[in-house]
Amino acid sequence: MSDGTALRNVRRTARRVARVAAVAIASLTLYFAVSLAQVWFTGRSDDFAAGQHTVDAVVVLGAAQYDGRPSPQLRARLDHALQLWRRGAARLVVVTGGKQRGDRFTEAESGREYLVAAGVPIESIVVEPRGTSTFESLQSLRDAGDSTGVSSIAVVSDPYHVLRASLVARELGFDVRASATRTSVMRGSDALARNVREAVGVMIGRVAGFRRLDAWLQ
């Protein structure tokens, strides 16, 4: 083979590799753009806006608490769940979330006390304090299904979070609807960064499974 033929073969191979790489990058970019749009629009839609749906339980996904007092982020989620419960969207409110090292209270316990103070009967509240992630919290709720009777849920969280949380719940076998708080403290660049991060999580979870994604993040 002459040097000229070898050089042409190298160039031809390089062009093929470049085309494959370009297609892969374009496909990945499109996949990310679609996922980001879905995160954004799911966080701004509400399956309960028209008051037509009911579920077994409204599930409040955990966020920080300060010595038994919900953080502003958690309080916004609890207030939204309280609105849904008062409107009759569900018979139960599930509060979730464990605690960080050194904490005296779990996120779920602080959520329960907040809801009781707001007038929710304690028998209408289910506490799931074992999870340290969205997947673990929803898995704990699913595993307790025989005692709680919960199979259909409304996932309540910040707008950036409800799509991934809903997909996790669906993977775990729940009949799930989404309802994001409208008073989230996440605004501006913080909200944008979290939307981007959630879009990446949704991309990976849809391909690899959210159980595996949760294990990778531990």
Radius of gyration: 22 Å
Number of helices: 8
* Morphology call: elongated
Counting DSSP E segments of at least 2 residues, the number of strands comes to 7
Could you give the order of strands across the largest sheet?
A: 5-4-1-6-7
What labels would you give this structure?
about 220 residues, alpha/beta, Rossmann fold, two-stranded antiparallel sheet, 8 helices, elongated
Indicate the topology.
Blueprint: H1 3-42, E1 55-60, E2 65-66, E3 69-70, H2 72-86, E4 90-96, H3 107-117, E5 125-128, H4 134-143, H5 145-148, E6 152-157, H6 162-171, E7 175-180, H7 188-208, H8 210-217
Written description of the protein model:
Helix 2 (72-86) crosses helix 3 and helix 7 packs across helix 8. The mean pLDDT is 91. The protein has helices at residues 3-42, 72-86, 107-117, 134-143, 145-148, 162-171, 188-208, 210-217; strands at residues 55-60, 65-66, 69-70, 90-96, 125-128, 152-157, 175-180. Helices cover 55% and strands 15% of the residues. The longest helix has 40 residues, at 3-42. The chain is built from 8 helices and 7 strands; from the N terminus they run αβββαβαβααβαβαα. The protein is elongated. A 5-stranded parallel sheet has the order 5-4-1-6-7. Strands 2-3 form a two-stranded antiparallel ribbon. The protein has a single domain, classed as HUPs (Rossmann fold, 3-Layer(aba) Sandwich), CATH 3.40.50. The protein is α/β, with parallel strands linked by helices and 218 residues long. The relative contact order is 0.15.
